[in-house]
Design a protein that fits this description.
Layout lengths: L1 E8 L7 E7 L6 E10 L2 H7 L9 E2 L3 E9 L11 E4 L9 H4 L17 E2 L6 E2 L9 E5 L3 E3 L9 H5 L4 H12 L7 E5 L3 H13 L3 E6 L2 H9 L4 E4 L5 H7 L6 E6 L4 H9 L1 E9 L13 H7 L2 E4 L7 H13 L11 E3 L4 H9 L6 E4 L7
Parallel strand pairs: 4-8, 11-12, 11-14, 12-13, 14-15, 15-16, 17-18
Antiparallel strand pairs: 1-2, 1-4, 2-7, 3-5, 3-9, 3-18, 5-6, 6-10
Helix pairs in contact: 4-5
Length: about 375
């Protein structure tokens, strides 16, 4: 059993606090990971305010990089000393989605069987089955994707972001939207996930990439990541502006990275005939949209939800790590600030105010390459 520092929220809307928790040695199929970095994600805030479930207390954090320090019986795909990115899509290989050859939809993803606890024995619910705002965390071995090749110490922060938000945005374009070379893409909402969708559109070879937001600073950042056009929706009708930049037709793919009724309606209306709408922004529970069925039929195309960007970590993480190494994907640009484990609560405020793409918590020193 290991006593480590970790960030916990004990009840709904309570502040996140640093506590001493107990982490067991790995059992069969499990891995113990020394966490190097972990990004502060919107999903952690959803857990904090009770937007995911009521299974308090939560051990927060999930966008993480680290080093495997121990493995349990039967684990062969990773070994002690491996540098890894943690993921929450550890596919089971046996559910109906996996059997259909769609493991990125796996409906029974693996998590660690044993529980991490507070010192008094209270069981913790780890965010997305990971719980990585901690010096050590216990996960299913399949939640570890090995990073091949050398890593500079400062690169762990960027690579860990593939664990959730950045991967969700890139995957929404590459996987869910299936953007092809030469197509046009519009992204509504340029926070961390939306900006990642813009980076994904560049990787896919889109030639017209339109960023839509209310904030000029976010739009400037979107330009830096590859947007060819920007639209401030306080000043312009975004639907008309997207059509203007696409020859009057609308975009081939429109990504809603906000997830409210108004932006989803804009995404639906701003696509070309037979175009695709991708919803990657997470709606609040109970959000509704009144949909005219004649327009659904008349516009054709597709309306899709991006679950984690339809990501298969074993396939997508290594590819994106290589794109990063080749200088085609600016993961470093997503790291707005590096903070300590005691600074998570203020980081939530910065995120809510739209002041950062990502605050990254540096927890353990990275190993030498």
């Amino acid at each position: 059993m290991h006593e480590v520092k970790a960030v916990v929220v004990k009840e709904k809307n309570a502040p996140a606090t640093v506590e001493t928790i107990l982490v067991p040695d790995p059992g069969p199929g499990e891995a113990l990971v020394d966490v190097v970095t972990c990004g502060v994600c919107q999903t952690d805030l959803h857990y904090k305010v009770g937007g995911v479930s009521d299974d308090f207390p939560f051990l927060l954090g999930h966008e993480a990089s680290g080093v495997v320090s121990a493995v349990g019986e039967g684990v062969t795909e990773i070994a002690v000393g491996d540098r890894v990115i943690l993921n929450w899509r550890a596919v089971c290989g046996q559910c109906r989605a996996c059997r259909k050859g769609q493991p990125w939809y796996c409906f029974a993803t693996h998590n660690a069987t044993q529980k991490m606890t507070l010192q008094d024995g209270t069981e913790l619910s780890p965010a997305l089955g990971i719980g990585a705002f901690a010096e050590k965390t216990l996960v299913a071995a399949g939640q570890c994707t090995r990073i091949e090749g050398d890593i500079a110490p400062e690169q762990y922060a960027a690579l860990g972001l593939l664990g959730c938000g950045v991967m969700a945005g890139i995957g929404a374009v590459l996987n869910t939207g299936a953007v092809q070379r030469g197509e046009s893409v519009a992204v509504i909402g340029c926070g961390g996930v939306g900006t990642a969708a813009i980076a994904g559109a560049v990787l896919a070879g889109a030639t017209t990439i339109i960023a839509v937001d209310l904030d000029d600073e976010k739009l400037a950042t979107a330009r830096r990541f590859g947007a060819t056009h920007t639209v401030n929706s306080r000043e312009q009708d975004p639907v008309e502006a997207i059509r203007e930049h696409t020859g009057g037709f609308g975009a081939d793919v429109v990504v809603d990275a906000v997830g409210v009724a108004a932006t989803f309606a804009q995404a639906f209306e701003a696509r070309d005939l037979a175009g695709r709408v991708v919803l990657v922004g997470v709606p609040d529970p109970g959000t509704t949209w009144e949909i005219p069925l004649d327009q659904v039929f008349g516009r054709g195309g597709a309306i899709k939800s991006a679950w984690y960007g339809d990501t298969l970590p074993s396939r997508d993480f290594p590819m994106l790590v290589e794109q990063y190494r080749l200088g085609r994907l600016d993961l470093d640009g997503f790291v707005t600030e590096r903070i300590g484990i005691d600074d998570v609560e203020p980081a939530f405020d910065k995120m809510a105010a739209g002041k950062v793409l990502r605050s990254v918590v540096e927890i353990n020193d990275p190993p030498a390459s």
